[in-house]
Amino acid sequence: PPDRAELERMAATAGIGPIAPDAMETLTGIADGLQRPEIRNLLELLSLYRIGVDAPVTAEDVRACAPIAEGGELEPVVQAVSARRPGEALEALARAYSRGRTPVAAAMQLGRWFRLVHAAATHPGGPGAAIDRMRPPLRGPRRTALERTASGWSGAATETALAMILDCERGLRGIGAPGPDRAVVERLVVRLATLR
After folding, report:
1. Dihedral sign, CA of 102, 22, 30, 142?
2. Following DSSP, what letter does each residue of 23-73 receive, concatenated?
3. pLDDT tens readout for residues 122-159
4. Alpha-helix runs per DSSP H in the chain
5. CA angle 119, 125, 129 (to 5 degrees)
6. What SS3 state is found at 19?
7. pTM exceeding 0.85
8. Is residue 29 a contact partner of residue 104, using CB atoms and an 8 Å limit?
9. What is the pLDDT of residue 72?
10. What residues are paired with 19 via a beta bridge?
């Protein structure tokens, strides 16, 4: 994946203005889990999303444009965690690592997914109503997976999951207790997959 300097050049080429430091960190983490054409698509979408906005790009802007419909090598990890199958999730994580994906990318992918699950699980109209309002829209297998996960996870459980993921991301950035990055994410995957 491109490094931070190259991402900044790609963003400038796409016509994206100033990017806040936390937004750049978020963009770097997301890009780490994507192929170059997907990164270009993300930056083009972000540029369109920001038309008419003068303030620097925020982390929320980046997350809003992230390609949640495609998880690449990390998608099996996310779906195994969602189905509460820790052994399968760890095997999928090992495969993702062997294909060049990083612990940071895995944590961010889990965070993106569980933010969606939380929104769907806590919507007063039910998961279907929440998904209907999501932008960009979710369709096909991804929508089915989100409805199934949101129906099987309570709002409280998704809040706990998001807190765990945030703690993990802090640890990966050196803010919390230190530890080898892969081991930190492996522990996260097992804790999420066994959460009730």
Report:
1. positive
2. HHHHHHHHHTTS-HHHHHHHHHHHHHHTTT--SPBPHHHHHHHS-TT--GG
3. 999 999 999 888 876 677 777 888 999 999 999 999 99
4. 4-13, 21-31, 36-49, 59-65, 75-82, 86-98, 103-121, 127-133, 140-152, 155-172, 181-193
5. 70
6. strand
7. no
8. yes
9. 66
10. 57
